[in-house]
Amino acid sequence: MKYTQNRKIEQVNNTTLVIGVDIAKHNHVARAIDYRGIELGKALTFKNSHSGFNHLFTWVKTLMQEYDKLEAICGLEPTGQYSLPLVAFLTKRGIKVVVVNPLHVKRSKELDDNSPTKNDFKDAKVIAQLVKDGRYSEPYIPTGIYAELRNGMNMRDRLIQDLTRVKGQIDNWLDRYFPEFSIVFKSWEGQAALMTLDNFPLPQQIVDKGVDKIVKLWRQKIKHTVGHKRATLLVETAKTSIGLTEGLTMARQELKLLLKQYRMLEAEIQELMSEIENIVKQIPGAQEMMTIPGVGLVTIAGFLAEVGSLENYEHPRQIQKLAGLNLRENSSGKHKGQTRITKRGRRRLRALLYRCAMPLVATNPEFKALHHYYTTREQNPLKKKQSLVALSCKLIRVLFAIGTKKTPYDGRILMKNSPARLLQEAA
Fold this sequence. Notes:
Blueprint: H1 5-10, E1 16-22, E2 27-33, E3 39-47, H2 50-66, E4 71-76, H3 84-92, E5 96-99, H4 102-108, H5 120-132, H6 144-177, H7 181-184, H8 191-199, H9 203-209, H10 211-218, H11 228-239, H12 248-281, H13 286-289, H14 297-307, H15 316-322, E6 327-332, E7 335-341, H16 347-363, H17 365-376, H18 384-405, H19 411-415, H20 420-426
Parallel strand pairs: 1-4, 4-5
Antiparallel strand pairs: 1-2, 2-3, 6-7
Helix pairs in contact: 6-12, 6-14, 9-11, 10-11, 12-14, 14-16, 15-18, 16-17, 16-18, 17-18, 17-20
């Protein structure tokens, strides 16, 4: 993470064995070259198993001994879960593992043979050539507490997706059997609404129950906010409902299962977030990060899960590039194209920062002032979305400074040399 392009190239010298591995689900292909790009030995096909990994390791050691190489560097494409066991295996045995951009492999595969042919053997050599030229990045493999945090946040994302899916299915059920339910309750997740769905979700059941019995049931758990007025509206709405009237037995069973899933997922998310909070408390600087108004546990946990230890970075611009928030432009001669973000980085980190920037401009005085300045300044005013992207980058710098210095948030320091300070003072 701290290497420049020149330093990457300098890592490959005449004592370095460069290996390119094309990853697949069951069988991988490896090829080796030296620092000039000359292929060494024959290509190796090995299985995605412990014996296959040992076969690769023996092959590497044999080539190093045969060609007088002192160290090895292995490059591969980031292929998700398929590459992780191999990365861990090689790292534990002292072989440096780097990743190359799949887009670079695709665009450079014709340089050697001027052919668009694509296969595992060819890709393995292309990967090795990219590593030899220093066109790679060092993957961040979380360990210890950061590995726990990333696994926890990944699990939370999956649970949130499942919960969103179940909520959509409950909305679908209501649209079919009681479309007017939203007239009575703004949200079916309220206490009274859930009690209604648990006990008498169908319009005919509500009519049969009557106002008094509904109010009596509600007040067993809810002592205020609901009463005869709400119950009367519910009954009158149910009388004229256009909901389906066939297959109601299975309809109730369907809703019962959906509500059970909904409550189970809510409980699992709450339990998981309690464990994540305990993990975050152990990370130096995390508590200070949460002193930023508008930034909470989910943002800090998600940020650290994606970024890892801040000690791995020399400058916040490295995190900005990791998130794909660094700028690019297409210019030629007198033509200057639009400047945009590259979006080449960790998508979850980029989305997390952008989602956090939106409430920040509403609740944080300093970020609100900056947003107003960016969108109203005389020279180069930004659109609102562009301003939110700029504030996402600002948030990275703030989090980096607080996390490394371990000092609480101070808005005055943020606005000290900012032109937006004048607008804030005027307001």
